[in-house]
Structure formats: structure tokens, C-alpha cells
Amino acid sequence: MVGCGYWGSKHVRALRSLDAVGTVCMIDPSQERVDSLRRSFPGLESYAHLGQALDAIDAVVIATPPSTHKPLALEAIAAGKHVMVEKPLATSAADAREMIDAAKAQGVVLMVGHTFEYHSAVWSLREMVRSGALGDLYYLDTARLNLGLYQHDVNVLLDLAPHDISILNYVLGAQPVSVECWASRHAHRRLEDIAYLRLYYEDPKVVANVHVSWLDPCKVRRVTMVGSQKMVVFDDLAAEERIRVHNKGVAQPETEGDLTQAPMSYRYGDVVSPYLVFNEPLSIEDEHFTDCILTGMRPLTDGENGLAVVEVLEAAQRSVQQRRAVDLSEVRGGLDVPELAIPRQANRSASREVL
């Protein structure tokens, strides 16, 4: 486990619960962080730097600042180690492609930590789209807001938007063809702390809006999908009923031009909360990583999956700088991304955790 901060500590707990994992080593230059984690997990080995541990390990999970993802991953891959990198895979599409090429050359697993693609609520959203339960999709909207946490090396786009871009790509089973982005700096002199993205998809033809912020009084983790027949809201902060399907909508009257009628008719129906599989996404993700190592199976969130998100982020950054819509072909490198799928459920019960 490279990086023993907030996410690293969660990975340590999840990895230690897996039968396939014999030993978890902590790799972090901060002795304070190592000592803090060791109080919860006594007896764990620790190293200050990745190079010191390479002879003792088979695989690496990297949960460090994004600017360090590429050098750490390449160091591990060069030593023949399997690698999972927390989001985003890299800070540029060129770096992500270099990591993918290195993993292919060494024949090792490269996986990205797009945790929400292992979330039962997101699986349910994808099934609603695939089954046509919502009718024709009008638009999608996501919000990921909070007061902080400000990062040292990346802006709010690279910190928070990977979650929502990953969710949208997964739910729609597609990648956007163009991106518009507006971002601004307020409290921080150098890094943008609020951003709005608009992603244009062709198949299905739909627009998705993403709002991310480090500078908001309310913590929000919400995905809204609006269709011609139904509307659905996924609130990841809800203790219960994380998904609520609203049987409501609007329609134009059959006779147009009659000014005595209301311009639209409104339909109201039941609100239903479907049953969700009880799972902890991080545990499912870590178990899938070990399965891929042991069986040679291609990860559901492999390097190409991570690259698809990084390409959107790079296009969004370019859109902010040049104040225009950016076509993904401008940053895309021509790699084919396989169809995304739902992983098998874990064979054990896992505790619920709000991500």
C-alpha cells in the first residue's frame, strides 16, 4: 500500500480482509502516518519508499497525490509488479498511455480505482438506462460539493470530477465526444476550486452536466437522471433509499397554439426506492484486483478505462484555458475502450460505507 493517508488506510483494511492477500506492507515516508495506521493494524511491515519494498511484494496499490501516480506506477511496473492506481490514473492522457504501454510490455495488471463502478447503486442506474425504464433520456446531472478538502497538486477538476465522469461513462456505456468546462479560482490563488462541465454523448445522444466544488457550505454527492417516462435520483449520502425513482414527467398538449391551455401537462406518480445489493464498493474493487492478478482476467476498470476519464479531464482543462468546446478527438490517442461490465458480487458480507 503506497500512501497511508485517508484512502490508503481504507485500502489496508479492505486488503487485509481478503483471503488471497497474505501480507500488506505500508509504504509511506511519513512515520507519523505509518504509526497511526499501525495502531489500528498492529504488526504491519512498513517501508519509507517503494524501491525498498519491491523485492518483498507482488502487487502495489497507489493512493498518493495524482502528480506522483505515473512515476510510482512505472517504477512498480518496471519491477514486474501488478498495479492499481487511485483516481485519476494520471494527470495527462500522454502519461496514462505511457503507463498502459509499460504494463502491456511487462505483462502485468494495471487497474484504476474508479470505485463507483463497483457500487450497487451505480449498477442499478446503468440497468435502468439499458432497459429503457426511464424512457428517452433528456439529460443527466451530477453534483459533488463540499467545503474542501483542497489538494496540493491538482485542482478540483482532477480531484473530484473523475468520480462523476467514471459514473457517467459507465451508466451510459459510452464516452463523450466533446466537452465544455467553466472553472474559477476563489479561495486558492493557483488552483481552481469550483468547476462546471458539460459532456456531450452521441450514443445515446444526451448531455450530462457535472458540478464539482471545494467551496460549498453543503456536502452533496448526487446523480440525477431525467427521462421522458421517469426520473431518478441517486443520493450517496442518504442512509437509506439511496436511489429514488420518480414516476413523473411532462408532455406537450396534443393541440398546439391553443392559448387557453397550459403549455405543458404534468404527470405525477409514485416514488419508489428499489432494493440495492448490500456491498462495500472499495472491498469489491480490491477483491477484483486480486482476482485479476490470480486469474489473468482483464480488470473492469483497466488502464484504458482510466485513460478515457483522463482524456475528458484533459479536454476540460483545455476548454477552460481556451474558452471553447473541445472535441475528444483532439486529445484521444486511438485506444479502444472495452464495454464496461458489472463485476461479480463479493462472496462475503461487507459493511456499508459512504464514499
Automatic annotation (TrEMBL):
Residues 124-232 form the GFO/IDH/MocA-like oxidoreductase domain. InterPro entries: Gfo/Idh/MocA-like_OxRdtase_N (IPR000683), Gfo/Idh/MocA_Oxidoreductases (IPR051450), GFO_IDH_MocA-like_dom (IPR055170), NAD(P)-bd_dom_sf (IPR036291). It comes from the Bacteria. Gene3D superfamilies: Dihydrodipicolinate Reductase, domain 2 (3.30.360.10), NAD(P)-binding Rossmann-like Domain (3.40.50.720). Transmembrane segments: none annotated. It comes from Nocardioides jiangsuensis. Residues 1-114 form the Gfo/Idh/MocA-like oxidoreductase N-terminal domain. This is Gfo/Idh/MocA family oxidoreductase. PANTHER family: BILIVERDIN REDUCTASE A, GFO_IDH_MOCA-LIKE OXIDOREDUCTASE N-TERMINAL DOMAIN-CONTAINING PROTEIN.
